């Protein structure tokens, strides 16, 4: 590998209600204009002590290979919670994406994703999608992207339910990366995913991160994630959000 990035993220402060159900792939891409491999791993560890002892650990691995015409991206994200003597994996996502450049500002995306989330009562969710991705700008100080995808969704609820949903959804996203100063960055992505046969059944997700460079390889980062599902699985809240602060260390 030409480049290897190790990211260790220590949570300083976090408020959350459940976990996100939409994967923000934009936050996982690494901007590159030359052919190269990119590897990143993210490790989060937390310990909470109140009426019970809660241990949390999560690991995210990203592999990316980029050429002048093609981009290949693989993501594996797993979270584990341990409450007293009971252990369970509450969330896992595997995501594969391929981009093919058509012209300078237009690419075609194809992706496949598998997902499970015990907190959101998702035993399995599988997605297959395809669509165009437009680059709206190419400035070094800001980058804007728009994607419109068509996807098939297969979803199974928890072990106690036999319900299986198979539907087609749209997925439109807008992503912006702003660099107002040399040591400050702001990255925000918003997704809108309606059910094509019933537009009142939709999901909205936004993830916004602000990074402040402290030293050459040290970054302080604040991330806010908001998710809304108009028709979630019964018993699951429509709104989910999470706020985290931390430090990121990188090296090549």
From TrEMBL:
It holds the Pfam family DUF481. InterPro entries: DUF481 (IPR007433). This is Uncharacterized protein DUF481.
